[in-house]
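Q: What structure does this chain adopt?
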Amino acid sequence: MFFVPSLALVHLFPFERMPLVIAVVACQTAIIAIPVFWLVTWRNRSISGTLGRSSCFVGVIVAATASLLPLERHRDERRAAIQAAGSSAVLGNIERVNWSLAFFKSKYGEYPDNLERLDFPPASAPVDSRHAALIEFPLPMEEFFAFKYTRRPRADAGNAGYELNIDAKTGKWSNLYHYCSDESGSIRFDANSDACKRGPVVKHQ
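A:
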């Protein structure tokens, strides 16, 4: 508990070139230097004045630490989400959807209006562009992730495309797992849904 304030402060900054122990000790030394100075020079002021200053200082440190701990916890969760993004089981489902969409376009000349057109047809119904029989829904990971598909209209100078957004459903870490893809087949990830299109590529086509 003695080192909690310095740990909370140190983790807010990258210290790649400095060992964590050294950074924590240096930070903690700087924090306790002020109250130690007051205690050493207590003869220059009244005892109540020294105790009052020290108590106020400790109160400020405790309050600052309490406000920093949730931020640090969120940073740790975000870091863990980014590290786990490239090995998530949902990547296989996203690849399957991308492959099915590419096959659908090669066969029918355009991307479907919705993902349901990739599904298998009802019994005795024909396989066509309404039910392409390319993938079976619901996908295994749809229990944990919501798949949102949007077809982009055909541009004047190019082919139509699509956007695929995969967000974790409501849960403890639902705000940290966001994948997105498009007709390129590459899958990107970011802990912020709005930044997913600019996030790092975790799976290439």
